[in-house]
């Protein structure tokens, strides 16, 4: 089968022939990929940022946002069958450790993260996952239309879901970055809360999309974005600021946009947040990290998709155009999410 393989950091991956995955345990599931999302994390992986944290042994196959059709199942699998349409939670978990028992899939002590850790991902024709990673979808769902919700979608949804108690009617939610994650976050805030939504982005086209998705106000990130947000909020800032950028100084802008007693949710990464401790104490602010989301988050998000309250905006590429898709993402030429279709 064809797969997008990373051989060296700081160099583009290559599309090449590799053996198809096979079942290795009774709970394994082989999925024929119908869509694989292209994520900024893939760019960070290629840059080598995850080399120490996850230690993938190169070469390996990229791709951690996957959906498709069940091709083969292990003898103990009962929740899906061959032919089912599925979206895959990005980190199959054991179900037995304390974190799993508490519903914190991403902290599973025995988890794998295909496409990020030392396990082949789904930028390929087939992927091996587990029964615990499969969320069954309606048979008429096109996997390429929803694949990126497996990571970008639940990452945004998980952050918003946590912040719902902080966003009663009359509160202000600031969304910084209306790209692949942020455009889902805008819709999640609109679906789950009655807060006023202010969206900040450097791209006018992204702001146009934000307006269509439920933003009450938009701010062009042209150097005066912090002051503009303050002006829109009576000088206070956002009760919750969702930072889907968190690099190149945006992380510190997000802190400055956060109101006293407010919360900054850090979802993007790559930068360095520097905060005087007096600001934390005197302002009573909080900084909250966010790592992907749970299996239940994915189930809830797909229910919002089915009801039409969340839509993933995509740009599709054939698998052989993976390098082009990654380059388009790196240079901000993708509105919404890039999807590879084998």
UniProtKB/TrEMBL annotation:
Residues 10-340 form the Enoyl reductase (ER) domain. Pathway: Metabolic intermediate biosynthesis; 2-deoxystreptamine biosynthesis; 2-deoxystreptamine from D-glucose 6-phosphate: step 3/4. Its cofactor is Zn(2+). Signal peptide: none annotated. It is an enzyme of class 1 (oxidoreductase). SUPFAM superfamilies: GroES-like (SSF50129), NAD(P)-binding Rossmann-fold domains (SSF51735). One of its GO terms (molecular function) is zinc ion binding. Its EC number is 1.1.1.329. InterPro entries: ADH-like_C, ADH-like_N, ADH_Zn_CS, ER, GroES-like_sf, NAD(P)-bd_dom_sf, Zn_alcohol_dh. Belongs to the zinc-containing alcohol dehydrogenase family. DOIA dehydrogenase subfamily. This is 2-deoxy-scyllo-inosamine dehydrogenase. It comes from Streptomyces brasiliensis. The lineage of its organism: Bacteria, Bacillati, Actinomycetota, Actinomycetes, Kitasatosporales.
């Amino acid at each position: 089968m064809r797969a997008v393989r990373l051989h060296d950091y700081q160099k583009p991956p290559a599309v090449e022939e590799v053996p198809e995955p096979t079942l290795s345990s009774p709970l394994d599931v082989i999925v024929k990929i119908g869509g694989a999302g292209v994520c900024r994390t893939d760019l960070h992986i290629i840059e080598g940022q995850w080399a120490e944290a996850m230690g993938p042994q190169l070469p390996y196959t990229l791709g951690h946002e996957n959906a498709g059709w069940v091709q083969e199942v292990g003898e103990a699998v009962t929740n899906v069958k061959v032919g089912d349409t599925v979206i895959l939670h990005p980190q199959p978990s054991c179900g037995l450790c304390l974190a799993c028992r508490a519903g914190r899939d991403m902290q599973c002590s025995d988890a794998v993260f295909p496409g990020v850790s030392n396990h082949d991902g789904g930028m390929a024709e087939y992927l091996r996952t587990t029964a615990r990673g499969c969320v069954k979808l309606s048979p008429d769902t096109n996997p390429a239309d929803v694949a990126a919700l497996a990571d970008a979608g639940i990452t945004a949804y998980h952050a918003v879901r946590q912040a719902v108690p902080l966003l009663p009617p009359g509160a202000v939610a600031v969304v910084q970055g209306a790209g692949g994650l942020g455009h889902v976050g805008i819709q999640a805030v609109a679906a789950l809360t009655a807060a006023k939504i202010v969206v900040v982005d450097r791209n006018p086209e992204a702001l146009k999309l934000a307006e269509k998705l439920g933003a009450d106000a938009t701010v062009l990130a042209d150097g005066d974005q912090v002051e503009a947000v303050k002006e829109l909020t009576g000088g206070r800032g956002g009760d919750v600021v969702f930072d889907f950028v968190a690099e190149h100084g945006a992380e510190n802008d997000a802190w400055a946009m956060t109101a006293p007693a407010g919360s900054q949710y850090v979802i993007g990464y790559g930068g360095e947040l520097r905060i005087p401790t007096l600001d934390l104490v005197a302002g009573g602010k909080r900084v909250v990290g966010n790592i992907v989301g749970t299996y239940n988050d994915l189930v809830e998000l797909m229910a919002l998709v089915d009801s039409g309250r969340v839509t993933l905006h995509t740009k599709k590429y054939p698998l052989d155009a993976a390098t082009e898709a990654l380059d388009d993402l790196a240079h901000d030429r993708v509105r919404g999410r890039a999807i590879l279709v084998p």
